[in-house]
């Protein structure tokens, strides 16, 4: 009887430890309400909007992954397509200026998200963002450091005056880079120029963009 009771006590302790760890991954998105005042600076330009692709649960990324063959990749669901259309429509309605072309990782799901949001002719593939997809806590330290240093350079680059740069790519592992990002979640970055770093000024859910209107 005592053994059984002790078992339940240990289970309770484990749950107390695990639940906060899982909750912490989403905390940045859940506990910080979006300040509508962020819209006025965005309308002036000078920011980078780093966006994760839409919901993608159709198929799998196969060992023989080929960027020119979507059948070898995990692709957007119908919900993911709807999300991408809503994202583009919401930002246009908010009169936020963009630098074209927008950037996209070479995966079909990122290219399609960008094309649905802004039009296929306004999308440019940047192979660098594949390195973010490959990034994990198991990545060799030297490779991880090189990728994060290159990311820093990208995010320090100030867009042309009066515009914002949009990047469609991937979520990060917890604790690395820009952290975990939900589907069509946006990390708003303020670049400060090469060698001067950048600031993260906001994290915005898709439905929050629509809610600004």
Automatic annotation (TrEMBL):
Any one Pfam family here would be: His_Phos_1
Q: Which InterPro entries match?
A: His_Pase_superF_clade-1, His_PPase_superfam
Q: Where is the signal peptide?
A: 1-25
Q: Which keywords accompany this UniProt record?
A: Signal
SUPFAM superfamilies named among the record's database cross-references = Phosphoglycerate mutase-like (SSF53254)
Q: What is this protein called?
A: Histidine phosphatase family protein
């Amino acid at each position: 009887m005592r053994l059984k009771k002790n078992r339940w006590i240990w289970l309770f302790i484990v749950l107390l430890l695990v639940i906060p760890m899982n909750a912490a991954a989403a905390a940045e998105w859940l506990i910080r309400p979006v300040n509508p005042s962020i819209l006025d600076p965005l309308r002036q330009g000078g920011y980078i909007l780093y966006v994760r692709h839409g919901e993608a649960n159709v198929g799998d990324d196969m060992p023989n992954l080929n960027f020119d063959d979507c059948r070898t990749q995990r692709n957007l669901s119908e919900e993911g397509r709807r999300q991408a259309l809503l994202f583009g429509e919401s930002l246009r309605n908010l009169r936020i200026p963009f630098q074209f072309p927008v950037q996209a990782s070479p995966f079909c799901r990122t290219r399609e998200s960008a094309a649905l949001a802004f039009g296929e002719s306004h999308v440019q593939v940047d192979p660098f963002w594949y390195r973010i997809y490959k990034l994990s806590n198991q990545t060799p330290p030297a490779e991880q450091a090189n990728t994060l240093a290159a990311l820093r350079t990208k995010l320090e680059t100030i867009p042309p005056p009066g515009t914002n740069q949009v990047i469609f790519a991937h979520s990060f592992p917890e604790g690395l880079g820009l952290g975990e990002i939900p589907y069509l979640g946006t990390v708003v970055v303020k670049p400060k120029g090469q060698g001067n770093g950048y600031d993260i000024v906001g994290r915005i859910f898709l439905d929050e963009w629509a809610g600004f209107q």
